[in-house]
Amino acid sequence: xxxxxxxxxxxxxxxxxxxxxxxxxxxxxxxxxxxxxxxxxxxxxxxxxxxxxxxxxxxxxxxxxxxxxxxxxxxxxxxxxxxxxxxxxxxxxxxxxxxxxxxxxxxxxxxxxxxxxxxxxxxxxxxxxxxxxxxxxxxxxxxxxxxxxxxxx
Length: 153
Fold this sequence. Notes:
By secondary structure, the protein is an alpha+beta fold. The protein has helices at residues 23-29, 89-99, 106-112, 123-136, 138-141; strands at 7-9, 16-18, 45-49, 52-62, 68-76, 104-105. It folds into 2 domains: 1-32, no CATH class; 45-141, no CATH class. The chain has 5 helices and 6 strands; from the N terminus they run ββαβββαβααα. The chain has a 4-stranded antiparallel beta sheet with strand order 3-4-5-6. A hairpin with a 5-residue loop joins β4 and β5 (68-76).
């Protein structure tokens, strides 16, 4: 005999609970308003070391607390080719599984990632990089408004 147990899933973040008795919990959870949006982080181009840049962008995903999530891509400064982490592929996949979410909150990034020294690109270099990124990675950055400075808002 197979027993079916209904699953109730938050359509905004993927939070779920099993069983009819938990339907109300998920309905209440879905009422949590979205928070954590940081406009100056979406499209920010910054430099952590002399050889590479990081480009931050907002994802379409929310954390289970309905906070907006962000990711970043690293590029070689001169060629603007994607810079690999240097970790073995199995380790990268394990990290993704452990995190269990596609991104980080703005507060996590500003507290932990930005605790390392970052450098703002000079204006001319920023213009070169931003136009070249749009050209090379059209699917990611065609509509992106790049930013040179992080204001925290």
